[in-house]
Design brief:
Blueprint (H helix, E strand, L loop, with lengths): L1 H13 L5 E4 L1 H12 L11 E5 L26 H8 L3 E6 L19 E2 L2 E5 L5 H5 L7 E6 L5 H7 L2 E4 L19 E6 L2 H11 L24 E5 L6 H17 L1 E5 L7 H16 L18 H12 L2 H14 L8 H21 L2 E5 L14 H6 L5 H6 L3 E9 L2 E9 L4 H11 L1
Parallel strand pairs: 2-3, 2-6, 9-10, 9-11
Antiparallel strand pairs: 1-3, 4-5, 6-8, 7-8, 7-12, 11-13, 12-13
The chain binds glutamine (GLN).
Glutamine (GLN) binds next to loops.
Amino acid sequence: CYDLIAELFERIERSKLNAFITLNKEEALKKAEEFDKGKLKGKLAGIPVAVKDNISTKGLRTTCASKMLANYVPPFDAHVVERLKQEGAIIIGKTNMDEFAMGTTTETSYFGVVRNPYDLERVAGGSSGGSGACLHNESVLALGSDTGGSIRCPASFCGVYGLKPTYGLVSRYGLIPYANSLEQIGPMANCVEDLALLLEVIAGKDERDSTNAGVDFKFEPEDKRYRVGIIKEMSANDDVMKVFEEVVDIVRERHEVVEVSLSSLKYALPAYYIIAMSEASSNLARYDGVRYGYALEKLDTWTRYFAKVRAEGFGEEVKRRIMLGTYALSAGYYGRYYLKALRVRTLVRNDFQRAFKHCDLLIAPTMPTPAFKIGEIQDPLTMYKMDVNTVPANLAGIPALSMPMGFVKGLPVGLQVMGNYFEENKILSFALELE
Ligand code: GLN
């Protein structure tokens, strides 16, 4: 194990992907030694795992890819990190991401963009871009977080598997929050079985997250003929649709395929961004340069100090979202934007529930395009629109997987598989059979 882990670090140090922000080399090599002496036990004993840099790791720098937290070393482990350690996993480092998980390409990282393993000129997706890219050959497993597609997007762009679990299945204790009501930590891997194993380890009861459902997960593959719905409102460009339709033909050989329409989905994207930005504006108020994070030497007046810390510590995209979120929550506009978005959220949830009355699973392309060129999308609105197929699952809280479904001009594209609450077993069984 020692030699393998040492070789992994050599690879990472030589790599052009920029998938990692901080390496845990010394500690990881120590663990590998323990494994070789037969002292490391558990379901993940000796397996390298990369952890997204918004998940707290005791004694290991956790930056959220922001200047604001560039020197922050958490005094505690997130629940999922405790679980990894209990099961003998070797945490090799913290992965690069969009600043505070706000983005779809990892271009907003203070530590530079992550490059796509299939084409270094292209993005790896985001916001868990480092966790997606590192699975190419720099880690075996990775943890990401998904507020509106941040696990599934890089999984699609990097040709790997990524699952956003049911809201409440995995404890968010120790996840630095962006939009609490939408996000989940989830597994990323190179095959269904690895993905399921990592989910088994991180899922389960934790009283420190009040939204935790207290439910365990155990993968028991079932061999069933499912009723699979194709969501009419979730589309992609022509090249991606061609691959998708080929996959649908394969699915049809084993399962019953029907078309379903979820009419509320046309409002899902704006509703997601209103809710996400509103929650973000409130969550990010804690970065005041006093308690932790970026600070200035001289304290002028309190308000000037506060403004300066935040002006210097946050990047452009984060500031844009804090401003828009604050606006959406302000007294005169609360009813006009935030409350309306919450209503749409209910409609989306109800539409999914109606669909799951007669479908076991729903499928769609994960992303509307394959990975695009770094710097190609400059306009924020065009960028937000890339999330159109991924955000509905977060609004509804249902589990959603992205798995590789083929290639478009040498670039991987993902198939999204959604199930009803806590039906990860169905999703993974379906994926295992299709793999
Ligand atoms: N791209 C989406 C956003 O920027 C998703 C982010 C995420 O899931 N963390 O909000």
